[in-house]
């Protein structure tokens, strides 16, 4: 099998150009950038206050949970992308088909999870931004950061969703490779000791290898070598022995 899980043959060398041209790698880098943007926007400009207040509140309707969700999920998404990119780099060195299948299943599960997380995050942030009171932010600070976080949360739904679909396609390839190895596993050759014993028996018998051929037929079981069915034994013929002249090499002995 030349490829499995979008990677080269097991044990192959790492090719950076080919690696960064693969669709899963491109989508993972985009998801990594999106998570960094969401985390940075909310962490830096996601908290504002009124002119007469000292304490800062979340820009999303002063709902602290909204900002915590965006910052926490953005940081975890960032780390998750980095971890799976490292796995993609190491993947060509995995020779076991079962281990490859486990990696693909983990990728599918994580990708589907993050697609759902950002769907919830997009709906949550968009709703809280829509109901925000303009009087809570009279200077309109952090508005661009809030809209950027909502936008990239929306994009992250599709990047992780496509990664889930690509993972399902790779799972089919790895499953096919697993079934192929089960069906076409090479037979184990006979041990050397058995071959040596078989040859020694042939030497002791002094027989040619034709006796050990699968085409050998027992003469007693060969219809062509058997006497005709109608031939009958007529008994001992004394006259034939008396009249035999010995021309065949046999000499009659008189006792």
From TrEMBL:
Cellular compartment(s): Membrane
Annotated membrane-spanning segments are 29-49, 69-91, 103-129, 149-168
A Pfam family? MARVEL
The alphabetical list of record keywords is: Membrane, Transmembrane, Transmembrane helix
- Keyword Transmembrane helix attributed: yes
Q: What is this protein called?
A: Synaptogyrin
Q: Which InterPro entries does this entry report, sorted A to Z?
A: Marvel, Synaptogyrin
């Amino acid at each position: 099998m030349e490829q499995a899980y979008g990677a080269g043959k097991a044990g192959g060398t790492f090719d950076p150009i080919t690696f960064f041209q693969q669709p899963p790698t491109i989508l993972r880098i985009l998801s990594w950038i999106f998570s960094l943007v969401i985390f940075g926007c909310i962490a830096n400009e996601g908290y504002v206050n009124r002119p007469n207040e000292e304490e800062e509140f979340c820009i999303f309707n002063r709902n602290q949970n909204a900002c915590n969700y965006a910052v926490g999920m953005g940081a975890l998404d960032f780390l998750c992308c980095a971890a799976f990119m490292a796995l993609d780099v190491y993947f060509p060195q995995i020779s076991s088909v079962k281990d490859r299948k486990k990696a693909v299943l983990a990728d599918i599960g994580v990708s589907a999870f993050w697609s759902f997380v950002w769907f919830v995050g997009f709906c949550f942030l968009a709703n809280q931004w829509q109901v925000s009171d303009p009087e809570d932010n009279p200077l309109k600070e952090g508005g661009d950061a809030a809209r950027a976080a909502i936008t990239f949360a929306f994009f992250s739904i599709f990047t992780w969703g496509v990664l889930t679909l690509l993972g399902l396609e790779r799972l089919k390839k790895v499953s096919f490779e697993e079934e192929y190895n089960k069906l076409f596993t090479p037979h184990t050759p006979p041990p050397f000791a058995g071959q040596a014993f078989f040859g020694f028996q042939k030497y002791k018998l002094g027989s040619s290898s034709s006796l050990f051929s699968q085409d050998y037929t027992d003469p007693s079981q060969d219809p062509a070598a058997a006497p005709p069915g109608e031939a009958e034994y007529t008994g001992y013929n004394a006259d034939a022995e008396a009249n035999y002249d010995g021309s065949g090499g046999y000499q009659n002995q008189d006792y």
